Amino acid sequence: MTHRIVTKASIQLGIRDRERRAILDLTLRPVEDDTGRIVLVALEGLDISDRKRLETQLLRCQRLETIGSLAGSIACNLINTLAPISGVAKLLRLQLTAIDDDTHEMLQLLESSANRADDLVQQIVSFLQGGEGNRTLLGIKQLLSEVQQLMQATFPASIEIQTCFSLDLWPIEGDQTQLYQVLLNLCLNARDAMPEGGILRLSAENLRVNVPNHLGDASSGRYLVITVSDTGSGIPSRTLDKIFEPFFTTKAPDQGTGLGLSKAMDIVESHGGFIDVFSAEEAGTQFGVFLPALMPTEPVAAPS
Questions:
Q1: Residue closest to 250 by CA, chosen among 265, 263, 237
Q2: What percent of the chain is modeled with pLDDT above 70?
Q3: What EC number is given for this enzyme (predicted)?
Q4: Which domain holds residue 83?
Q5: Is residue 245 in a domain?
Q6: How far apart are CA 271 and CA 162, in angstroms?
Q7: Helix (H) or strand (E) holding 28
Q8: Would you give the distance in Å from CA 70 to the centre of its chain?
Q9: Considering the domain boundaries, does residue 303 fall inside one?
Q10: Separation CA 31–CA 5 (nearest Å)
């Protein structure tokens, strides 16, 4: 008696346990004998979880690239729209000398609001169009001030933003756009960790690190330390060691790509620094960005 395999059928099945979710490609292969009677059904299973995950991540990156291009165009159009609003408000204040104080204040408010909106959009355009590797001598206070203004303009009122900057922060050599990206990513993560509100604290200080120390990646020397902390949900200890891995995320598929912290780490390490993180569930998270500091008399290397 001979047997032959008839038409097969394939299905994909998702299964989940406490550690991970797996996607299996199952193939059913009925086997018939000479009389056409099915005598056996063979089941083959292939774990395609990694392939599906990579496909999903690729689609997310493509969508982000498209959104980035669209955001740049929208930002430029907004700048063109805001310019006449600010200009007309200023002209009206100058030309309408007989208006009462309330009208004068309203026109001034209109002009200042348009200017603030223009500054915000300019920051976004600068971030989107920023070049790679433009290392200059940076006083970090201006960068921190821009990040603070962006948070105050866009974060929900339920999140209290606190800042604490030392008076005489050491300068650093760095790329302003890249460091802006690092801080913005950390602040956005802090915001997402506090959906019901909380406190986001942005601080900066000078620090001398001596070896030995509790910071495993640190060399001895002077560092400018920028700290972003929140009172959010915290990071589970079982995943804390994975947060800087590319594409690793604890967020829902439509809320994160898992690339933000990985890119932040790459940028900081390219500046000769490192990131230190402390977190506990329901006790918040603190990221410390350590950047090698220069004393004011030290020369800055020319951009390569």
A1: 237
A2: 74
A3: 2.7.13.3
A4: 55-129
A5: yes
A6: 26
A7: strand 21-33
A8: 18
A9: no
A10: 4
